[in-house]
Amino acid sequence: MTTSLPPNGHRLARRLAFRIVLFSSLIALLITAAQLYLEFQRDLGYIHERFTQVEKAYLPSIVQNVWVADPGRLHTLLEGIDQLPDFEFAEVIVDGKPFASNGQRPATEDLIRKFPLTYEFRGQILNIGQLEVGASLDGPIRRTWQRLWFVLLLNALKTALVAALIFLLVRRMITYPLESIAGTARRFASGDLAQPLSLPVTRLSARDDEIHQLAEDLDEMRQHLMLRQASLETMNRNLEESVQSREIALMQSRASEAALRDSETRLRTLIQTIPDLVWLKDTEGVYRACNPQFARFFGAPETEIIGRTDYDFVARDLADAFLDNDRRAMAAGGPSTNEEWLTFAEGGYRGLFETIKTPMRDADGNIVGVLGIARDITARKTAEMQIRQAHDEIRHLNEDLEGRVLRRTAQLEAANADLESFSYSVSHDLRAPLRGIDGFASILAEDYAARLDEEGRRLLGVVSANARKMGQMIDDILAFSRAGRHEMMITEIDMTALVREVWQVLEPQHEGRHVELRLATLPPAHGDLAVIRQVWQNLLGNALKFSRQSAPAVIEVNGEASGGELVYHVRDNGIGFDPADAENLFNLFQRLSGSSEIEGTGIGLAIVKRFVLKHGGRVWAEGQTKGGACFSFALPDGGNSPEFMA
């Protein structure tokens, strides 16, 4: 047997390098885990030290501002606490209720520290509240992961270099010599003993090592084999000459008989196992062979079929048709195909069969019979018919669907026409009476002021104010209606510049007020510029209206890309709202609870929702009663034109 190395070779070097990499990686992982655990504990210690820093540096100022009830200064101090590394929450609680807070309370209570707020007043120590400060483990965990990746990368590089060096050394000192020895062994196995074996000496090897000693022993064995081979060759020649002449005739005879038996066995096996009906007839229509599948058609074993004709098993007209097909195939000199319905005598099965009949010829090319093969195609024909029926049904369904789409399109066009008519009626027919009510009320107030008492003048003012409010509501309803029909023109929008532009437009609404706009850099988006401008104008105007009671009023605008979306926020420190009302604020005519003294019709946020939905986005709101509000909307990220929404 000849032994050879695999084509890719060097398996010994790769295995040794792999085991070294595996062991060193395991040790590095254990050391890295211990080191990261110690550094994580150190980060936790820093967090606890910062709790002490908060108590020493911030607590006195917080106590003083709580005593004087200065929420603005408190908010600044709490923001300073949140700026400490790993801190994300700070809240002052007075009389069991939040007085000022900043940040989001952590989900776990393990890193929340509570400090009592005490104030010395006229010699007494008064407990005026409590400061709660919360830290997060996100920062230590993130830094731990960063250290982990850096250490793993460094260890992987070191291990790879060591493994590569070992791989090269093993390949030079062991693998290459072994390949040379293996090649010589293969030559020995094939009978080539003439070429001696010698290994090159390199700086990494020597002539007195084990591999070179093995090569010398193998070369000595080669010399002994050469002597034995010469002796055996002489003996073999003499033996072959005496046996060769007697074996030639016997081998030829046996080979011919074996080939004939093998050919007959293969043919018989093929005929017996093929799933189709197979039979052989001579030129007179007499059966010479058939398989079990054909025997089931006649309902008789093969031994009873051989030597008989079709007329012995089927009706005469069917036997005549079989014989005509045989004669047609022999006359054509090639395969003849036809389809026919056959009923099996065994089991009564009836099916459609595709029959191929081919003339059989002898060594001289003369036709000596017919080979027949019949295949059941009933299932295939049935499937083809079902497919055609299914195609017809699909065509009919498509035609019906197209008709429904056309009818639905016509209905939508009619509805849009009705909506346009309604908008025209609202714009012209309803405005005139309202202007008349407002005008006549003003005339009464001016021309008949002397005849009216104080209550009459007040009632006329109410009539005039409500007429103007109704006119504003009609304008807002028309704007809401137009929002659903606005044709979208998609462009790239610089959101930061757009917010600055809208803020300048809204300047009359905050003129003379102390309002601070904190605008962060916003990610750009794709959308309709006019529509998005209206979204910002409604949200910023809303924030200005509901923060009038705050001094100063602080409006924060920021945004970020997150989860395939561009998210934008408008936050104010105004009167806020009940969180239970958050889902209803974007519906038509919904007003913030407790905001009856603030102008508005409750349609501005509904327009915001409709415009954002047309861009394929979403809107939501967060807030607390007397704790400010945050209105947010998100647009798809990616620069593709949004799907038009109804």
What does this molecule look like?
- The chain is an alpha+beta fold and 646 residues long.
- The protein is built from 14 helices and 16 strands.
- The strands form 4 sheets. It has a 5-stranded antiparallel beta sheet, with helices on both faces.
- Helix 1 (11-57) runs antiparallel to helix 4.
- The protein is flat and about 145 Å long.
Task: Give a short summary of the structure.
The chain has 646 residues and is of the alpha+beta class. It has helices spanning 11-57, 59-67, 71-82, 138-189, 210-273, 292-298, 302-305, 316-332, 378-447, 454-485, 495-505, 507-510, 529-546, 604-614; strands at 87-94, 97-103, 112-121, 124-135, 277-282, 287-290, 336-343, 350-361, 367-376, 490-493, 515-519, 525-528, 553-562, 565-572, 618-623, 629-636.
Unreliable stretches, pLDDT < 50, 5 or more residues?
1-7, 640-646
Radius of gyration: 49 Å
Give the integer mean of the pLDDT values: 79
Strand content: 15-25%
Distance between the termini: 80 Å
H-E order: HHHEEEEHHEEHHHEEEHHEHHEEHEEHEE
Helix content: 55-70%
Profile the largest sheet. 5 strands, antiparallel
Using the alpha-carbon principal axes, give the shape: flat
User: Structural class of the helices, strands and pairings?
Assistant: alpha+beta
